[in-house]
Design goal:
Blueprint lengths: L6 H4 L7 H15 L3 E5 L4 H11 L5 E5 L3 H12 L9 E5 L6 H9 L5 E4 L12 H24 L5 E5 L10 H15 L1 H5 L3 E5 L3 E2 L6 H10 L4 E4 L3 E2 L1 E2 L1 H14 L4 E5 L3 H4 L1 E2 H11 L3 E5 L2 H13 L2 E7 L19 E6 L2 E5 L5 H16 L8 H9 L5 H4 L12
Helix pairs in contact: 2-10, 3-10, 5-6, 6-7, 6-14
Amino acid sequence: MKQPLHQIATGRAGSLFESDIAQSEDALRAAITGKRVLAIGGAGSIGSSTVLQIAMRQPDTLHVVDQNENGLAELVRRLRSQPDIWSVRDFQTLPLDYGSAAMRHLLASQTPYDLVLNFAALKHVRSEKDPFSTLQMFDTNLLKQERFMGWLAGTGFAGRFFTVSTDKAANPSSMMGASKRAMEHVLFNSSAAAALPGIKTSARFANVAFSNGSLLQGFENRLARIEPLAAPRDTRRYFVSLQESGELCVLAAALAPDHTIVIPRLDPEKHLVTLQEIAESFLRHHGYEPAHYADEREACAAARIEAQRGFWPLILTVLDTSGEKPYEEFMTDRERSREMGLPNLRVVDYLAADRVAIEAMLRETEMLVNDVSAGVLSKDRLKALLALVEPGFLTTHKDAAANLDQRL
């Protein structure tokens, strides 16, 4: 019997957080059972895994918002196929943009929610390939978050509000990572945050193995299409499974202390794994030996011939694209972590940026989004916006002429 596919990346057959969930079960049920829950971006990989964790603990209301209609349909199918493990009196899926007028009308129509989780984001490093995609990322990750928080405050919300972050927010080398660090500032220390009662939490964690749009999911798609696999050399990443991502998020959303960011207790010596190693293990899992190539065209031309011989082309590329760094980390040297009473999780205390700087970043971003006459839109200008709240980004950002769209 083959090992579970996620084990190729995580090295674990079971969940890292099994003991954390078992220890917290009573507290989780107290926070969720009979409560009103709203999940934004809940049809994505991490969001849907977390929605399942919530649905298993019998909330009274579970509303799931996502612009991906197909993802919402698949979420419904997934839940309806497991009738014995979940129960919700008021379950709705809504294909809405969480920063839209329709979202505001939805919030105004509802009794205040007890628990709100936000997974909506542009989260690909490749989004900094041009200033237009980057501005859209800022709009989604920052402005809509601020707008949504203001609307939520207007409903009388006083519960728990969680927004997922990323390990790439620590010492960010990409615009995406820096935008998620800026999102943490909006969540915890903006004027919108000050006006929103309740407990606010976040989480930074590893890459989610075989999640939608991930490099590892790309391996599966390429294998099905008889195309070469590709991975950067000397690049290490932490990985969690889809189940682990949902468990971590539900624990962070329901139980973490106010103004903290939950991180997994992973050891760089033990848990950082190279992408080349994962690609090679993935091919062997499917019965092929890797055949290393340096040239994309040669690898593409050889794919079918190699497959007939029991081999598969694997292109190993140089790590020379914008925003990519050779390893990930969960916190900076300036941040402090502490125990949260669980064996495999800790919390990082939010390290604040100046509120005046946060507001300046938001207002200038808003001007760029709403006024095409606001001046030339450039990567340097957007980078300077992030530097208002994260000055170190001017040093840690990895810029390059190449981008991920120029790689197989």
